[in-house]
Amino acid sequence: MPLFWIPPEVAFCFVAIVDRALNLSSLSSSDCYETIIVGAGIAGLACAQRLAEQGKSDFLLIGEKLGGRIPSSSDGQVNYGAFYLRSDYEHFLKFAGIKRRIHVSDVLFAQEGKYKSIFSIVSWKQYPKLIRWMLFLRKFQRHSLLFRQRSVTMSQKKAIELDPWLHQLYSEPAEALIERLRLEELAGNCFDQLVMATSFQRRSEITAGYYAASCLPLIQPTYEFEFFPERMIESCFENIQKGSVTRVSPINTEGYCWEVLNDHGNRYQCRNLVMATPISVSRSLIEIPGETNPAAAAYMVHVRGILKSDYATGAIHIFPCDSEDLVIVHELNGTSFLYSRRATPVLETYFHNYEVIARKHWDPAFFLGNCIIEAERDNNLYLIGDHSFCSVEDALITGLFAANRIARRCSERNESSQSDYREPLDPVLAG
Ligand SMILES: Cc1cc2nc3c(=O)[nH]c(=O)nc-3n(C[C@H](O)[C@H](O)[C@H](O)COP(=O)(O)OP(=O)(O)OC[C@H]3O[C@@H](n4cnc5c(N)ncnc54)[C@H](O)[C@@H]3O)c2cc1C
Question: How many Cβ atoms sit within 10 Å of the Cβ of residue 372?
């Protein structure tokens, strides 16, 4: 554990104290900001961190929970939301500590009532197809890495439109891809279970792109991790306020475009508004025309108990696709956690004796579908987060993108002599 580690709760307490000390009731110049970020998940934190890195200090981040959907148990040992990272999470790795590696051989799949590793499920006759899938995944990964690289400076929507191959995969159903590659048997025996355990969705429910992304742990080193959100805000503590935003309204006053109200009744104005909340929350605060991906729920139970013999070996057990329970993970500290699609899984099925350490209900947990929405909107509004591509790395990159765009537009404005300069409305961006 690094020396400067501060538990997220303590970091937020500190921020709350600073905030109380600054508690101003009427709107003054200190309530006007160049940028307000709403939401302190990985996307909002990345935006704040990148703005600070670029020398910007005129911003405020208002958030409820530091880290959002990446929380951990009070001792930091077990993650209650995002569970794994891959070694190609270039940006997220700067803020996370790597823990146990998840080897493919440690993952056991349900097969005819027993749990087996992929190597005992796949017969030698199926190896050519398995290799074909691995090669496909390599190609998918190359395209995805280029997409991520581009997404740092352009919106995900624009970045994916530059790659018709990848774009097609995120538009078509996973069923179509599996049929095209003639992988039905392998998919039915193990890939579908892996996808279900990582995305909580059946093959029939997701796009080919997300199906392939969920299979990437087959070819890329994958680890459990510990997240250090305080590393992201160490250079901008004073710009962070614990709280909930209750209202957001467009305004047009002296170059400010948005007014934001928090749950303490404080009003703030800003030129740039970055909504880093789950898209369902953003939609409840702002009018967002067009469709967005539907929300899916997920449930997690952290348990101390004795596992029944069927589940006692291997690090990870993945259940059959027709089960509402998805996966049991055995942690190094002797506890286990279960991810499920139902709120109250029957723990007696898996444990002899047990005690529940914690339960976590994620609703919304994921937004999966083929809607890729434009992050950069009219009126200096940015919609960031995992609403189009779901992973901690992709969500983080949307935060970098918003900060980069804001910094760029700010320097363009400074270069122009007009004080009330606003970039002309781009009809594509506005869409
Ligand atoms: C159970 C589960 C398992 C997952 N597993 C993995 C995994 O293994 N690997 C992986 O890469 N990804 C995984 N993910 C996905 C990953 O966690 C998310 O994609 C990512 O964390 C989303 O980050 P975000 O910043 O977009 O949103 P969030 O983390 O949801 O952040 C949004 C923030 O906004 C705050 N907020 C909401 N409303 C308001 C308001 N009115 N005012 C102020 N703040 C508000 C919230 O409290 C939250 O802190 C998993 C997700 C879940 C739920």
Answer: 22
The CB of 345 under 6 Å from ligand 1? The reply is no
Beta-carbon contacts of 294 under 8 Å, excluding residues fewer than 6 positions away, are: 367, 368, 369
Find the 300 Cα to ligand 1 centroid distance in Å.
14
**Is 232's C-beta closer than 6 angstroms to any atom of ligand 1?**
no
Q: Looking at the chain, which residues constitute the CATH 3.50.50.60 domain(s)?
A: 8-71+227-293+371-430
| CATH number of this structure's domain 8-71+227-293+371-430 | 3.50.50.60
Ligand 1 atom nearest to 300, measured from its CA: 1
Contact 93, 393 (CB under 8 A): no
CA distance linking residue 170 with residue 193, whole number of Å: 20
Distance CA 19, CA 11 (A): 12
Q: Is 82 in the pocket of ligand 1 (CB under 6 A)?
A: yes
Q: Cis omega (within 30 of 0) on the bond before 128?
A: no
Nearest CA to ligand 1 atom 41: 245
Q: Cα(387)–Cα(276) distance, rounded to whole angstroms?
A: 10
pLDDT tens per residue across span 259-293 = 999 999 999 999 999 999 999 999 999 999 999 99
- pLDDT digit string (tens) for 292-329? 999 999 999 999 999 999 998 888 999 999 999 999 99
Query: 343: how many CB neighbours lie within 10 A of its CB?
Result: 12
Output the pTM of the full model.
0.91
CA of 95 to the centre of ligand 1 (A): 16
CB of 274 sitting under 6 A from ligand 1: no
For ligand 1, say whether the CB of 41 is within 6 Å of any of its atoms: yes
Tracing tokens 């690094």 back to the chain, one arrives at 2
